[in-house]
């Protein structure tokens, strides 16, 4: 998450709303949100998904937890792309490129 927040500008040209979704409680997320905001002057909003319903929608449920990764939904709420990748932050250039490619596919259809 640190790598993402250090490089949010890499995705600024995409017309998307970005969120961090996790099974953590709102209180746990608020703590992390505040720490990121203190460190970087901003933080992406968090969505608390303790029942893992949204995570399951993205096909990222791993028993009682979530895989790490990223995905895109269209304006109708349909998942159009998802990637499970525990190293997405360390591979941020590749991650950004994949997100941009998938975004372009959606907008060119």
UniProtKB/TrEMBL annotation:
Q: What is this protein called?
A: Alkyl hydroperoxide reductase subunit C/ Thiol specific antioxidant domain-containing protein
One annotated GO molecular function: antioxidant activity
Q: Which residues form a coiled coil?
A: none
Per the UniProt entry, what species is this protein from, by scientific name?
A: Bacillus taeanensis
Could you confirm whether the keyword Disulfide bond appears in this record?
A: yes
What is the top-level taxon of the source organism? Bacteria
Q: Where is the Alkyl hydroperoxide reductase subunit C/ Thiol specific antioxidant domain?
A: 2-80
What keywords are assigned to this protein?
Disulfide bond
